Amino acid sequence: AKMAGKNCYRYYSRAMDHAVERRVHMEQELRGAWERGELRLAYQPIYRTRDRRMVGVEVLLRWQHPTLGTIPPSVFIEVAEQSGLIEVIGPKVLRAACTEAVQWPPGADGEGLFVSVNVSPRQLRGGELPTLVADCLRDTGLPASRLHLELTETAVIGDEMLAAALLDKLHRTGVKVWLDDFGTGFSGLSHLRQVPVDGVKIDKSFVADMQRDPDDLALTTAIIAMAHALGITVVAEGIEQEVQFDLLAQRGCDLAQGYWLSHPVSATDVVQLLEAGS
Ligand code: C2E
Ligand code: CA
Ligand code: CA
Ligand code: CA
């Protein structure tokens, strides 16, 4: 039994070494990935539910490595956050997105599409984000109203005073701030009173089951009603079926995003969609 235990320990220890090695390797590769042109931006269209017009896009980072292959953001964003690399990559994504979006033709009602950029909790540290955002807008010429930032619910919970001060500074640049993955952090809707955000994105885990799980439907309905009572925009993500879109539209959900509407696409495709009058 002792022997088995020892072997067992060795086995796990080796497996762990391997995982650590892979992580370290990935971190090293990620360090130069932007410069080598392995990172690119994908854009997932966001539609107004009322008339199903494309009104914006969410920017999603992609990493295609020559030997490691396609690495999903759920893996490499985590590595970037833990290593601090996100503080280098995040600003590049923001700048690239603004540079790209300013070149797009105006959409259906003459207004430019908004670009919604994910901001990791780590980028909120140090308080440099508002300056970075202001610099990006100035340098690229993108109107502030066309830039949205997606902050996770968990990033702003805990210190509401600090969060409120940061959001205030961000708002002074003219951008909009959305709470991403809303509902998962279990912060409760009462936080929306203290943290002045412009919108919430209902997490896709609630949308996924809403047509068969009464709890998820009730929760989604409550989020929409409460957000609207506070004058906050509601976006639903992860819509994969028409029935989900219909349920959300019936409840007055303002904006919709998901594979059923469109997968993430390239910048060229965004321009094509705009020119086709989507
Ligand atoms: P997220 O911000 O919640 O982004 C939405 C994710 O849902 C994206 O995954 C998107 O491709 C996926 N999605 C869109 N429609 C559907 C659908 O109908 N069904 C399902 N099941 N999924 C859908 P992706 O691109 O793999 O990104 C995963 C996460 O990585 C993002 O989650 C975000 O947290 C993070 N991420 C991606 N790009 C960036 C970035 O530039 N900066 C930061 N900080 N995080 C990023
Ligand atoms: Ca997001
Ligand atoms: Ca999300
Ligand atoms: Ca459920």
Compile the SSE list and pairings.
Elements: H1 2-31, E1 39-48, E2 53-65, E3 69-71, H2 73-83, H3 86-101, E4 114-119, H4 129-140, E5 147-152, H5 153-156, H6 160-172, E6 176-182, H7 191-194, E7 199-202, H8 204-209, H9 214-229, E8 233-236, H10 242-250, E9 255-256, H11 267-275
Parallel strand pairs: 2-4, 4-5, 5-6, 6-7, 7-8, 8-9
Antiparallel strand pairs: 1-2, 1-9, 2-3
Helix pairs in contact: 1-2, 3-4
Bound molecules: ligand C2E and calcium ion (CA) (3 copies).
Domain EAL: 23-278
Subcellular location: Cell membrane
Organism: Stenotrophomonas rhizophila
From the structure above, extract its key features.
Diguanylate cyclase (GGDEF)-like protein, 47% helix, eight-stranded mixed β-barrel, 11 helices, 278 residues, 9 strands, binds calcium ion, alpha/beta, single chain, binds ligand C2E
